[in-house]
TrEMBL record:
Species: Mycobacterium innocens
UniProt GO BP: DNA transposition
Tree of life domain: Bacteria
SUPFAM superfamilies: Transposase IS200-like
Region (Disordered): 1-20
All copies of domain Transposase IS200-like, residue ranges: 33-108
Protein name from the UniProt record: Transposase IS200-like domain-containing protein
GO MF: DNA binding; transposase activity
Length: 108
């Protein structure tokens, strides 16, 4: 299955990074197939630009450790000066609130 945006030229599509949602393999169990993702955005208070390179490296390492402990996968980690984007894949056996609570708690 291919997902394409109707805006832009064909060269823009070739230069774009592969979409993690379409290249990700499905989670397969004995009676179910799933592909569940969370997109979380953590924003600083008043959108202040406070993140440094060292802080972001530490933050990514910490969040990856939390994901490993929860049996979820941190698919993408993207950072701007005032906010952090996370794309997390999780199995259907994990409640959606659990990774959100743990990741938000550790990121604070």
């Amino acid at each position: 299955m291919s997902v394409r945006c109707g805006i832009g030229s064909a060269s823009a599509h070739r230069n774009r990074k592969a979409d993690p949602l379409t290249t990700q393999s499905y989670h397969r169990a004995s009676h179910s197939v799933s592909l569940l993702h969370l997109h979380l955005v953590f924003v600083t208070k008043y959108r202040r630009r406070i993140f440094t390179r060292g802080m972001l490296t530490f933050c990514e390492h910490t969040l990856r450790m939390v994901c490993t402990g929860l049996d979820v996968e941190l698919v993408e980690f993207n950072v701007e000066a005032d906010h952090v984007h996370l794309l997390v894949a999780y199995p259907p056996t994990v409640a959606i609130s659990t990774p959100v609570q743990r990741l938000k708690g550790r990121a604070a």
